[in-house]
Amino acid sequence: MYANAEGTTMRDRPAEIRIHDFQEVDTGLSTEAAIREAERCIQCKKPLCVNGCPVCIDIPAFIREVAAGNFRESARILKAQNMLPAICGRVCPQETQCEGQCILGKKETPVKIGALERFVADWEREHGFELPETKPYRGMTVAVVGAGPAGLTAAAELARLGHRVTMYESLHEAGGVLMYGIPAFRLPKEIVRAEIEQVLALGVELKLNHLVGRSVPVDELLKFDAVFIGTGAGLPYFMGIPGEQLPGVYSANEFLTRVNLMHADKFPAFDTPVKRGSRIVVAGGGNVAMDAARIARRLGGKVTLVYRRREEDLPARAAEIEHAKEEGIEFVMCANPVKILGDQCVTGVECVEMEMCKLDASGRPEPKPTEGSTFTIDADIFIQAIGQGPNPLLLNLLPQLEKSRRGNLVVDENGRTKVPHVFAAGDVATGAATVILAMGTAKTAAQAIDRMLRER
What we know:
Blueprint: E1 2-3, E2 9-10, H1 15-18, H2 31-39, H3 48-51, H4 59-67, H5 71-79, H6 85-91, H7 98-101, H8 113-127, E3 141-145, H9 149-160, E4 164-168, H10 177-180, H11 189-201, E5 205-207, H12 218-221, E6 226-229, E7 235-236, E8 249-251, H13 252-260, E9 279-283, H14 287-298, E10 302-306, H15 318-326, E11 330-332, E12 335-342, E13 346-359, E14 365-378, E15 381-384, E16 388-389, H16 392-396, E17 422-424, H17 427-430, H18 435-455
Parallel strand pairs: 3-4, 3-6, 4-5, 6-17, 8-15, 9-10, 9-15, 10-11
Antiparallel strand pairs: 1-2, 7-16, 12-13, 13-14
Helix pairs in contact: 2-4, 2-8, 4-5, 4-8, 5-8, 6-8, 9-18, 13-14
Protein backbone atom coordinates (compact mmCIF):
# COMPACT_ATOMS: atom_id res chain seq x y z
CA MET A 1 0.00 0.00 0.00
CA TYR A 2 1.20 3.52 -0.67
CA ALA A 3 -0.13 6.85 0.59
CA ASN A 4 0.53 10.39 -0.60
CA ALA A 5 0.73 13.61 1.38
CA GLU A 6 -3.07 13.91 1.52
CA GLY A 7 -3.60 10.33 2.65
CA THR A 8 -5.19 8.88 -0.48
CA THR A 9 -4.18 5.27 -0.78
CA MET A 10 -3.89 2.44 -3.24
CA ARG A 11 -4.30 -0.77 -1.26
CA ASP A 12 -2.49 -4.03 -1.91
CA ARG A 13 -4.07 -7.37 -1.10
CA PRO A 14 -2.21 -9.08 1.79
CA ALA A 15 0.80 -11.09 0.63
CA GLU A 16 -0.20 -14.18 2.60
CA ILE A 17 -3.45 -14.29 0.60
CA ARG A 18 -2.32 -13.19 -2.87
CA ILE A 19 0.51 -15.76 -3.16
CA HIS A 20 -2.17 -18.43 -3.52
CA ASP A 21 -3.93 -16.89 -6.54
CA PHE A 22 -3.41 -14.79 -9.67
CA GLN A 23 -5.86 -12.01 -8.80
CA GLU A 24 -4.71 -8.39 -9.09
CA VAL A 25 -2.45 -7.28 -6.25
CA ASP A 26 -3.50 -3.65 -5.85
CA THR A 27 -7.16 -2.74 -5.73
CA GLY A 28 -7.06 0.78 -7.18
CA LEU A 29 -8.46 4.08 -5.94
CA SER A 30 -11.99 4.62 -4.75
CA THR A 31 -14.00 7.43 -6.36
CA GLU A 32 -13.51 9.66 -3.34
CA ALA A 33 -9.77 8.95 -3.18
CA ALA A 34 -9.38 9.61 -6.92
CA ILE A 35 -11.06 13.01 -6.64
CA ARG A 36 -8.94 13.96 -3.62
CA GLU A 37 -5.79 12.89 -5.42
CA ALA A 38 -6.75 14.83 -8.57
CA GLU A 39 -7.37 17.94 -6.49
CA ARG A 40 -3.69 17.90 -5.52
CA CYS A 41 -2.67 18.73 -9.11
CA ILE A 42 -1.67 22.40 -9.28
CA GLN A 43 -2.33 22.61 -13.06
CA CYS A 44 1.09 23.91 -14.06
CA LYS A 45 1.19 26.41 -16.94
CA LYS A 46 4.13 24.46 -18.34
CA PRO A 47 3.31 20.86 -17.35
CA LEU A 48 6.53 18.89 -17.27
CA CYS A 49 4.54 15.70 -16.71
CA VAL A 50 3.39 15.79 -20.34
CA ASN A 51 7.03 15.89 -21.45
CA GLY A 52 7.57 12.70 -19.48
CA CYS A 53 4.73 10.85 -21.23
CA PRO A 54 5.86 8.92 -24.36
CA VAL A 55 2.35 9.14 -25.87
CA CYS A 56 1.84 12.84 -24.96
CA ILE A 57 -1.38 12.58 -22.93
CA ASP A 58 -2.76 15.95 -21.80
CA ILE A 59 -2.25 14.98 -18.17
CA PRO A 60 -3.40 18.22 -16.47
CA ALA A 61 -6.61 18.21 -18.53
CA PHE A 62 -7.64 14.64 -17.72
CA ILE A 63 -6.79 15.15 -14.03
CA ARG A 64 -8.78 18.40 -13.95
CA GLU A 65 -11.87 16.53 -15.13
CA VAL A 66 -11.35 13.84 -12.49
CA ALA A 67 -11.22 16.51 -9.78
CA ALA A 68 -14.52 17.90 -11.12
CA GLY A 69 -16.10 14.44 -11.19
CA ASN A 70 -16.37 14.48 -15.01
CA PHE A 71 -15.02 10.97 -15.54
CA ARG A 72 -16.51 10.56 -19.00
CA GLU A 73 -14.77 13.67 -20.28
CA SER A 74 -11.57 12.59 -18.56
CA ALA A 75 -11.73 9.29 -20.46
CA ARG A 76 -12.20 11.16 -23.74
CA ILE A 77 -9.07 13.21 -23.07
CA LEU A 78 -7.05 10.12 -22.22
CA LYS A 79 -8.15 8.20 -25.30
CA ALA A 80 -7.46 11.11 -27.61
CA GLN A 81 -3.80 10.07 -27.27
CA ASN A 82 -3.89 6.54 -25.84
CA MET A 83 -6.31 3.72 -26.61
CA LEU A 84 -4.83 1.49 -23.88
CA PRO A 85 -5.22 3.58 -20.69
CA ALA A 86 -6.21 0.75 -18.33
CA ILE A 87 -3.09 -1.14 -19.37
CA CYS A 88 -0.78 1.87 -19.08
CA GLY A 89 -2.25 2.85 -15.72
CA ARG A 90 -1.10 -0.51 -14.40
CA VAL A 91 2.25 -1.29 -16.03
CA CYS A 92 3.86 2.02 -17.04
CA PRO A 93 6.88 3.14 -14.96
CA GLN A 94 5.21 6.43 -14.06
CA GLU A 95 7.70 7.01 -11.27
CA THR A 96 10.43 7.64 -13.85
CA GLN A 97 8.25 9.27 -16.51
CA CYS A 98 5.24 11.52 -15.91
CA GLU A 99 5.27 11.31 -12.11
CA GLY A 100 9.03 11.71 -12.13
CA GLN A 101 8.52 15.13 -13.75
CA CYS A 102 5.68 16.28 -11.43
CA ILE A 103 6.62 19.55 -9.77
CA LEU A 104 5.01 18.44 -6.49
CA GLY A 105 7.64 15.73 -6.28
CA LYS A 106 10.25 18.40 -5.54
CA LYS A 107 8.90 18.92 -2.02
CA GLU A 108 6.33 16.17 -1.43
CA THR A 109 4.75 13.16 -3.12
CA PRO A 110 4.01 13.63 -6.85
CA VAL A 111 0.45 13.30 -8.06
CA LYS A 112 -0.37 9.62 -8.62
CA ILE A 113 -0.94 10.03 -12.35
CA GLY A 114 -0.84 6.30 -13.10
CA ALA A 115 -3.41 5.48 -10.43
CA LEU A 116 -5.71 8.20 -11.78
CA GLU A 117 -5.32 6.95 -15.35
CA ARG A 118 -6.22 3.45 -14.18
CA PHE A 119 -9.21 4.77 -12.23
CA VAL A 120 -10.63 6.63 -15.23
CA ALA A 121 -10.13 3.68 -17.59
CA ASP A 122 -11.73 1.27 -15.12
CA TRP A 123 -14.65 3.66 -14.61
CA GLU A 124 -15.28 3.82 -18.35
CA ARG A 125 -15.10 0.04 -18.70
CA GLU A 126 -17.77 -0.31 -16.00
CA HIS A 127 -20.01 2.45 -17.40
CA GLY A 128 -19.68 1.80 -21.14
CA PHE A 129 -16.95 2.58 -23.66
CA GLU A 130 -17.09 5.55 -26.00
CA LEU A 131 -14.95 5.40 -29.12
CA PRO A 132 -13.00 8.43 -30.32
CA GLU A 133 -13.81 9.92 -33.73
CA THR A 134 -12.19 8.47 -36.86
CA LYS A 135 -11.58 10.20 -40.17
CA PRO A 136 -13.28 8.97 -43.36
CA TYR A 137 -11.58 6.14 -45.24
CA ARG A 138 -8.80 7.52 -47.47
CA GLY A 139 -8.46 4.50 -49.77
CA MET A 140 -5.09 3.32 -48.45
CA THR A 141 -4.26 -0.02 -46.81
CA VAL A 142 -1.74 -0.73 -44.05
CA ALA A 143 -0.51 -4.09 -42.76
CA VAL A 144 0.45 -4.24 -39.10
CA VAL A 145 2.58 -7.24 -38.15
CA GLY A 146 2.24 -8.13 -34.47
CA ALA A 147 -0.64 -7.39 -32.10
CA GLY A 148 1.38 -6.38 -29.06
CA PRO A 149 1.58 -2.87 -27.53
CA ALA A 150 3.34 -1.38 -30.58
CA GLY A 151 1.08 -3.07 -33.14
CA LEU A 152 -2.12 -2.19 -31.29
CA THR A 153 -1.05 1.44 -30.92
CA ALA A 154 -0.07 1.79 -34.57
CA ALA A 155 -3.27 0.06 -35.73
CA ALA A 156 -5.47 2.32 -33.59
CA GLU A 157 -3.69 5.49 -34.71
CA LEU A 158 -3.84 4.57 -38.40
CA ALA A 159 -7.50 3.52 -38.24
CA ARG A 160 -8.42 6.81 -36.60
CA LEU A 161 -6.57 8.64 -39.37
CA GLY A 162 -8.76 6.98 -42.00
CA HIS A 163 -6.69 4.04 -43.21
CA ARG A 164 -7.80 0.43 -43.64
CA VAL A 165 -5.69 -1.65 -41.27
CA THR A 166 -5.11 -5.41 -41.28
CA MET A 167 -3.26 -6.69 -38.21
CA TYR A 168 -1.50 -10.09 -38.31
CA GLU A 169 -0.80 -12.00 -35.10
CA SER A 170 1.08 -15.30 -35.03
CA LEU A 171 -0.43 -16.47 -31.73
CA HIS A 172 -4.00 -17.55 -31.04
CA GLU A 173 -4.73 -14.42 -29.03
CA ALA A 174 -3.81 -10.77 -29.50
CA GLY A 175 -1.90 -8.70 -26.96
CA GLY A 176 1.70 -9.83 -27.33
CA VAL A 177 3.67 -9.35 -24.13
CA LEU A 178 0.52 -7.99 -22.46
CA MET A 179 -0.92 -11.51 -22.69
CA TYR A 180 2.05 -13.89 -22.61
CA GLY A 181 4.54 -11.90 -20.56
CA ILE A 182 2.90 -9.82 -17.82
CA PRO A 183 1.13 -11.93 -15.17
CA ALA A 184 -2.56 -11.52 -14.42
CA PHE A 185 -1.82 -10.32 -10.88
CA ARG A 186 -0.23 -7.24 -12.44
CA LEU A 187 -2.43 -6.95 -15.53
CA PRO A 188 -5.72 -8.91 -15.60
CA LYS A 189 -6.26 -10.45 -19.01
CA GLU A 190 -9.93 -9.40 -19.24
CA ILE A 191 -8.70 -5.79 -19.14
CA VAL A 192 -6.28 -6.43 -22.01
CA ARG A 193 -9.05 -8.05 -24.05
CA ALA A 194 -11.44 -5.17 -23.36
CA GLU A 195 -8.97 -2.59 -24.64
CA ILE A 196 -8.09 -4.70 -27.69
CA GLU A 197 -11.82 -4.85 -28.51
CA GLN A 198 -11.89 -1.04 -28.56
CA VAL A 199 -9.02 -0.98 -31.06
CA LEU A 200 -10.84 -3.48 -33.28
CA ALA A 201 -14.03 -1.43 -32.99
CA LEU A 202 -12.22 1.39 -34.80
CA GLY A 203 -12.35 -0.80 -37.90
CA VAL A 204 -9.09 -2.75 -37.54
CA GLU A 205 -9.20 -6.28 -38.99
CA LEU A 206 -7.36 -8.83 -36.83
CA LYS A 207 -6.05 -12.10 -38.27
CA LEU A 208 -4.93 -14.52 -35.55
CA ASN A 209 -2.72 -17.58 -36.12
CA HIS A 210 -1.13 -15.84 -39.11
CA LEU A 211 2.66 -16.09 -39.12
CA VAL A 212 4.02 -13.56 -41.58
CA GLY A 213 6.72 -15.21 -43.63
CA ARG A 214 5.01 -18.59 -43.44
CA SER A 215 1.19 -18.54 -43.62
CA VAL A 216 1.38 -14.99 -45.01
CA PRO A 217 4.03 -14.67 -47.77
CA VAL A 218 6.26 -11.61 -47.59
CA ASP A 219 5.36 -10.69 -51.18
CA GLU A 220 1.69 -10.50 -50.16
CA LEU A 221 2.61 -8.30 -47.21
CA LEU A 222 4.55 -5.85 -49.36
CA LYS A 223 1.51 -5.28 -51.60
CA PHE A 224 -0.04 -3.08 -48.89
CA ASP A 225 0.42 0.65 -49.30
CA ALA A 226 2.42 0.64 -46.05
CA VAL A 227 3.69 -1.99 -43.62
CA PHE A 228 4.29 -1.57 -39.90
CA ILE A 229 6.42 -4.18 -38.12
CA GLY A 230 5.84 -4.45 -34.38
CA THR A 231 6.88 -8.01 -33.62
CA GLY A 232 8.57 -7.16 -30.33
CA ALA A 233 11.48 -8.95 -28.70
CA GLY A 234 10.35 -12.46 -27.90
CA LEU A 235 13.58 -14.37 -28.52
CA PRO A 236 15.21 -15.13 -25.14
CA TYR A 237 18.89 -14.75 -24.39
CA PHE A 238 20.69 -17.56 -22.57
CA MET A 239 23.70 -17.43 -20.27
CA GLY A 240 25.60 -20.15 -22.12
CA ILE A 241 26.61 -21.98 -18.94
CA PRO A 242 26.98 -25.76 -18.42
CA GLY A 243 23.77 -27.62 -17.63
CA GLU A 244 21.36 -25.49 -19.67
CA GLN A 245 20.10 -28.62 -21.45
CA LEU A 246 18.77 -30.20 -18.24
CA PRO A 247 15.02 -30.67 -17.70
CA GLY A 248 13.80 -27.95 -15.36
CA VAL A 249 15.77 -25.14 -17.05
CA TYR A 250 13.52 -22.46 -18.56
CA SER A 251 13.90 -19.14 -20.24
CA ALA A 252 11.63 -16.62 -18.55
CA ASN A 253 9.83 -16.17 -21.89
CA GLU A 254 8.86 -19.84 -22.05
CA PHE A 255 7.94 -20.03 -18.38
CA LEU A 256 5.77 -16.91 -18.52
CA THR A 257 4.10 -17.91 -21.80
CA ARG A 258 3.23 -21.36 -20.50
CA VAL A 259 1.50 -19.90 -17.44
CA ASN A 260 0.11 -16.57 -18.67
CA LEU A 261 -1.10 -17.57 -22.14
CA MET A 262 -1.38 -21.36 -22.05
CA HIS A 263 -2.73 -21.64 -18.44
CA ALA A 264 -0.12 -24.19 -17.38
CA ASP A 265 -0.88 -23.38 -13.73
CA LYS A 266 -4.23 -25.15 -14.29
CA PHE A 267 -2.81 -28.29 -15.92
CA PRO A 268 -4.34 -30.84 -16.67
CA ALA A 269 -7.52 -28.78 -17.16
CA PHE A 270 -5.47 -27.08 -19.90
CA ASP A 271 -3.13 -29.01 -22.21
CA THR A 272 0.15 -27.20 -21.52
CA PRO A 273 2.13 -28.35 -18.46
CA VAL A 274 4.87 -26.59 -16.53
CA LYS A 275 7.34 -28.23 -14.18
CA ARG A 276 6.63 -27.34 -10.57
CA GLY A 277 9.50 -27.26 -8.13
CA SER A 278 10.02 -26.77 -4.43
CA ARG A 279 13.21 -24.72 -4.89
CA ILE A 280 13.40 -22.28 -7.80
CA VAL A 281 16.30 -20.02 -8.74
CA VAL A 282 15.67 -17.06 -11.04
CA ALA A 283 18.62 -15.25 -12.64
CA GLY A 284 18.05 -11.58 -13.49
CA GLY A 285 16.89 -8.32 -11.97
CA GLY A 286 14.37 -6.74 -14.34
CA ASN A 287 10.60 -6.77 -14.38
CA VAL A 288 10.60 -10.05 -16.32
CA ALA A 289 12.68 -11.67 -13.59
CA MET A 290 10.31 -10.35 -10.91
CA ASP A 291 7.31 -11.66 -12.86
CA ALA A 292 8.87 -15.11 -13.22
CA ALA A 293 9.85 -15.25 -9.56
CA ARG A 294 6.41 -14.17 -8.34
CA ILE A 295 4.65 -16.70 -10.59
CA ALA A 296 6.97 -19.47 -9.34
CA ARG A 297 6.08 -18.44 -5.80
CA ARG A 298 2.39 -18.80 -6.60
CA LEU A 299 3.03 -22.27 -7.98
CA GLY A 300 4.17 -23.28 -4.52
CA GLY A 301 7.95 -23.04 -4.56
CA LYS A 302 10.61 -21.40 -2.42
CA VAL A 303 12.12 -18.82 -4.77
CA THR A 304 15.57 -17.27 -4.79
CA LEU A 305 16.40 -14.42 -7.17
CA VAL A 306 20.09 -14.04 -8.07
CA TYR A 307 21.36 -10.74 -9.48
CA ARG A 308 24.94 -9.89 -10.35
CA ARG A 309 24.83 -6.28 -9.14
CA ARG A 310 23.70 -4.51 -5.95
CA GLU A 311 20.09 -4.12 -4.88
CA GLU A 312 20.12 -0.41 -5.73
CA ASP A 313 21.08 -1.39 -9.30
CA LEU A 314 18.03 -3.60 -9.89
CA PRO A 315 16.32 -2.37 -13.09
CA ALA A 316 12.86 -3.61 -12.04
CA ARG A 317 10.25 -1.15 -10.79
CA ALA A 318 10.50 -0.42 -7.08
CA ALA A 319 6.90 -1.53 -6.52
CA GLU A 320 7.57 -4.93 -8.11
CA ILE A 321 10.69 -5.43 -5.97
CA GLU A 322 8.72 -4.54 -2.84
CA HIS A 323 5.88 -6.89 -3.80
CA ALA A 324 8.35 -9.71 -4.46
CA LYS A 325 9.92 -9.28 -1.02
CA GLU A 326 6.52 -9.18 0.65
CA GLU A 327 5.68 -12.47 -1.06
CA GLY A 328 8.71 -14.20 0.46
CA ILE A 329 11.16 -14.20 -2.45
CA GLU A 330 14.77 -14.27 -1.29
CA PHE A 331 17.21 -11.87 -2.98
CA VAL A 332 20.87 -12.84 -3.43
CA MET A 333 22.77 -9.80 -4.64
CA CYS A 334 26.23 -9.47 -6.21
CA ALA A 335 26.21 -13.07 -7.44
CA ASN A 336 26.04 -14.75 -10.83
CA PRO A 337 25.18 -18.35 -11.86
CA VAL A 338 28.07 -20.12 -13.59
CA LYS A 339 26.82 -23.72 -13.73
CA ILE A 340 23.56 -25.66 -13.45
CA LEU A 341 24.09 -28.83 -11.44
CA GLY A 342 22.40 -32.18 -11.98
CA ASP A 343 22.37 -35.35 -14.04
CA GLN A 344 18.83 -36.26 -15.15
CA CYS A 345 17.33 -33.06 -13.70
CA VAL A 346 18.37 -29.84 -11.98
CA THR A 347 19.68 -30.28 -8.42
CA GLY A 348 21.33 -26.93 -7.83
CA VAL A 349 22.87 -23.77 -9.25
CA GLU A 350 26.53 -22.97 -8.77
CA CYS A 351 27.17 -19.24 -8.38
CA VAL A 352 30.11 -16.95 -7.92
CA GLU A 353 30.22 -13.74 -5.91
CA MET A 354 30.68 -10.53 -7.86
CA GLU A 355 32.59 -7.42 -6.83
CA MET A 356 31.66 -3.99 -8.11
CA CYS A 357 34.33 -2.25 -10.15
CA LYS A 358 34.27 0.75 -12.49
CA LEU A 359 31.00 2.09 -13.91
CA ASP A 360 29.80 0.68 -17.22
CA ALA A 361 28.06 2.56 -20.06
CA SER A 362 24.72 2.49 -18.18
CA GLY A 363 26.25 4.25 -15.19
CA ARG A 364 26.07 1.17 -13.00
CA PRO A 365 29.05 -0.67 -11.46
CA GLU A 366 30.51 -3.28 -13.77
CA PRO A 367 30.51 -6.62 -11.93
CA LYS A 368 33.61 -8.80 -11.84
CA PRO A 369 33.80 -12.39 -10.46
CA THR A 370 35.58 -12.77 -7.12
CA GLU A 371 38.18 -15.51 -7.23
CA GLY A 372 37.48 -18.48 -4.95
CA SER A 373 33.97 -17.31 -4.01
CA THR A 374 31.91 -20.14 -5.53
CA PHE A 375 28.79 -21.29 -3.64
CA THR A 376 25.77 -23.47 -4.44
CA ILE A 377 22.02 -22.87 -4.13
CA ASP A 378 19.88 -26.01 -4.03
CA ALA A 379 17.29 -25.93 -6.81
CA ASP A 380 15.09 -28.15 -8.97
CA ILE A 381 14.08 -25.38 -11.41
CA PHE A 382 16.27 -22.66 -12.92
CA ILE A 383 14.77 -19.73 -14.83
CA GLN A 384 16.92 -17.37 -16.90
CA ALA A 385 15.59 -13.81 -17.23
CA ILE A 386 18.58 -11.98 -18.66
CA GLY A 387 16.94 -10.26 -21.62
CA GLN A 388 15.57 -10.98 -25.07
CA GLY A 389 15.83 -9.82 -28.67
CA PRO A 390 13.73 -9.84 -31.86
CA ASN A 391 12.72 -13.10 -33.50
CA PRO A 392 14.78 -13.29 -36.72
CA LEU A 393 12.21 -15.27 -38.76
CA LEU A 394 10.46 -12.38 -40.49
CA LEU A 395 13.49 -10.10 -40.46
CA ASN A 396 15.61 -12.69 -42.27
CA LEU A 397 12.95 -12.97 -44.98
CA LEU A 398 13.38 -9.26 -45.67
CA PRO A 399 17.14 -9.09 -46.37
CA GLN A 400 16.79 -5.55 -47.72
CA LEU A 401 16.06 -4.34 -44.18
CA GLU A 402 19.10 -3.18 -42.23
CA LYS A 403 19.66 -4.82 -38.85
CA SER A 404 21.86 -3.80 -35.93
CA ARG A 405 24.52 -5.97 -34.33
CA ARG A 406 21.93 -7.26 -31.82
CA GLY A 407 19.44 -8.07 -34.57
CA ASN A 408 17.12 -5.09 -34.14
CA LEU A 409 15.75 -3.30 -37.20
CA VAL A 410 17.53 -0.05 -37.99
CA VAL A 411 15.03 2.80 -38.39
CA ASP A 412 15.15 6.59 -38.54
CA GLU A 413 13.53 8.95 -36.03
CA ASN A 414 10.13 8.29 -37.63
CA GLY A 415 10.43 4.51 -37.63
CA ARG A 416 11.13 4.24 -41.39
CA THR A 417 13.34 1.36 -42.52
CA LYS A 418 15.53 1.14 -45.61
CA VAL A 419 12.44 -0.02 -47.54
CA PRO A 420 10.50 3.23 -48.11
CA HIS A 421 7.00 1.96 -47.26
CA VAL A 422 8.04 -0.35 -44.39
CA PHE A 423 8.16 1.05 -40.87
CA ALA A 424 8.96 -0.53 -37.51
CA ALA A 425 8.71 0.46 -33.85
CA GLY A 426 8.68 -0.99 -30.38
CA ASP A 427 11.12 -3.59 -29.11
CA VAL A 428 11.90 -4.96 -32.60
CA ALA A 429 13.56 -1.61 -33.33
CA THR A 430 14.63 -0.29 -29.92
CA GLY A 431 15.49 -3.52 -28.15
CA ALA A 432 13.58 -4.73 -25.09
CA ALA A 433 12.05 -1.74 -23.30
CA THR A 434 8.80 -0.80 -21.57
CA VAL A 435 5.25 -1.11 -22.89
CA ILE A 436 4.73 2.65 -22.99
CA LEU A 437 8.00 3.32 -24.85
CA ALA A 438 6.95 0.78 -27.48
CA MET A 439 3.62 2.58 -27.76
CA GLY A 440 5.30 5.97 -28.06
CA THR A 441 7.58 4.92 -30.91
CA ALA A 442 4.67 3.14 -32.63
CA LYS A 443 2.57 6.29 -32.48
CA THR A 444 5.39 8.30 -34.05
CA ALA A 445 5.75 5.72 -36.84
CA ALA A 446 2.00 5.63 -37.48
CA GLN A 447 1.90 9.40 -37.89
CA ALA A 448 4.83 9.18 -40.31
CA ILE A 449 2.98 6.50 -42.29
CA ASP A 450 -0.07 8.76 -42.48
CA ARG A 451 2.03 11.66 -43.79
CA MET A 452 3.59 9.42 -46.42
CA LEU A 453 0.21 8.10 -47.60
CA ARG A 454 -1.35 11.57 -47.73
CA GLU A 455 1.54 12.81 -49.86
CA ARG A 456 0.73 10.05 -52.34
